Amino acid sequence: MDLLKIENFRRHHPGQEFPSFRPLGREELEKIATAIRLKSEISGEDSLSLVRDLHGMSSALEGFNAQSEGFDFMSVTGAAGITTGARVCINWYRFDRIDCISPKDLATYFDDIWYPGSDDIDVFDDTLSWIISIDHDGRISLLTLDG
Hints:
By secondary structure, the chain is α+β, with helices and mostly antiparallel strands. It has one domain. Helix content is 36%, strand content 23%. The chain contains 6 helices and 7 strands. It has helices at residues 3-12, 26-40, 47-57, 73-79, 103-108, 110-113; strands at 21-23, 59-65, 88-91, 98-101, 121-125, 130-134, 139-144. Strands 1-4-3-5-6-7-2 form a 7-stranded antiparallel sheet. The longest helix is centred in the N-terminal third of the chain and has 15 residues, at 26-40. The two termini are 30 Å apart.
């Protein structure tokens, strides 16, 4: 998680700790990227191509925008028919920086974690059966992976 997000959180929530999260290590990052490539049948090794191909395979979730007043991440998962695991992972760029957090904390502190205008994120859980992408304009898309 960017230090700036943690500092901003502390400024906006005095006396409260930033929600617990865990950054993934290099081996975990590689395992996830490999598993997603296999499930999605994307053959390229380049991480930017992986992100672009995944987004190209995704479908827009109409009726949701992360910049909307009262946006609720759990409403998105519910509308998509997704049951999350105990943790969700946030891909910040090219599957080279991923933080894992509880879905409840992501939903509760979404505005402190995702910044409009700058963050393009992909959210998934340990099943790797779905990826919810939220672009910097708040547009939301879904990719389901069956493999």
